[in-house]
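=== Structure Prediction Worksheet ===
Name of assembly: unnamed complex
Input type: mixed (protein and possibly other molecules)
Chain count: two
Listed entries:
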Amino acid sequence: MKKLLQKIVGKSPWLYRINAGSCNGCDVELATTACIPRFDVERLGCKYCGSPKHADIVLITGPLTVRVKDKVLRVYDEIPDPKVTVAIGICPISAGVFRDSYAIAGPIDSFIPVDVNVPGCPPRPQAIIDGILEAIKIWETRM
Amino acid sequence: MTDILQPIFGLLIFPGGLFALTFGLFLKGLDRKIAARLQRRVGPPVYQPFIDLIKLAKKEMVVPETAHLWGFRLAPLFGFAGMMVAVTLIPIAGVYQGFEHLGDLLVLLYLLALPAIALMVAGSASSFPFGAIGFSREMVMMMSYELPLVIVLLTVALKVGLATGGLATFSLHKIVQFQLENGPFLFDYTMLPALVAFLIFIPGNMGVVPFDIPEAESEIVEGPILEYSGSGLALFNLVTSLKMVVVLGLGVALFFPTPLSEGFLLNLIWFSLKCLVLMIISITLVRTTTGRLRIDQAFKFYLRWPTLLALVSLVLTLLHR
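=== Predicted Assembly ===
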């Protein structure tokens, strides 16, 4: 019964996007991944939702600047609990070209537990979809 | 005993309850699939709304600290209960008669306002600025699309009433019976403007893209249902899918209720097909091909074109008695 439920649940992951001070490169790549017909993620049952309360999988872009740190942490706390975090781009891993800047609070995984990293600047759409698939696998086990 | 059991059966299993829920969710899935195909995407499977519902029912429900607790919890139930009753009022020709009381069209009009009121209660009870904005926008939308709907219903009632020697017949059962005897209103030129007005009313009532101003996803992040999660959100999803069945079923009953033949199952499939065609014309095509209007534009649009069309139909009906 639990296995069946996990299988059902894995087919409906709703995505939420947090921009933690990114340069918009990864965000454009994410938006096209969802919207452009060729890389349709809705076929996996995904749906972009506007509210963090509806979300299951969180996609974080950007290196977490000092200015947005509190807001990002607050929004992250609002997401109901079985959740999986996917960090997209090189910035969440090491802050990329912005490393050691006074405006950067640090790589994201020192504040938020990151489950899947999708490196690249920006990553290819196929890599993002692959990351989302990995996140779905993790999410099934948590539900 | 049977006269007690029959309404309960009607509410829980056949026209309401089980049938309407599965039918509504399948309509929603088909809507998503067809919209995806129109945008040259693959799209989710048709059974996707069922999966979403199961998942949402399993997730936790977060209630904000500042929210009004009872209003927040009961708002989705209001809409759900109203729609469950409204489904049983819709007659399906050759399958289900509906209630034979005199004023069920008026009752349906009141019940159709309930989901919007539930959204308003939800928006104002969640104590969040975006919810409050969604609440005020929902109210404006409701005031604008109710007027053409009322005139369309009045036109149909007058048409049937004048032809049968009364004044106006506010009974869906009698309206359907009249059309079964004298041919559907779809082929009557005096009723065509009313049909177009009803087709324009549907996207506004369902809150799909050109008129999804109360739930604008990109500016006020789904407005009234923003704070809902888990089972509350699942109930709101059920309310929209039930509302789809009610509105499309009402359209079929008002304008083209003719059954295909004698068979029960065949008539049911025919009714579903008519609902599907109505949905594709008035919801799916509209929402894939348009962008969003502003609230004042939508208000002016509804008070201008559908109202004018419905009034034309009303005048034509009064002239050709």
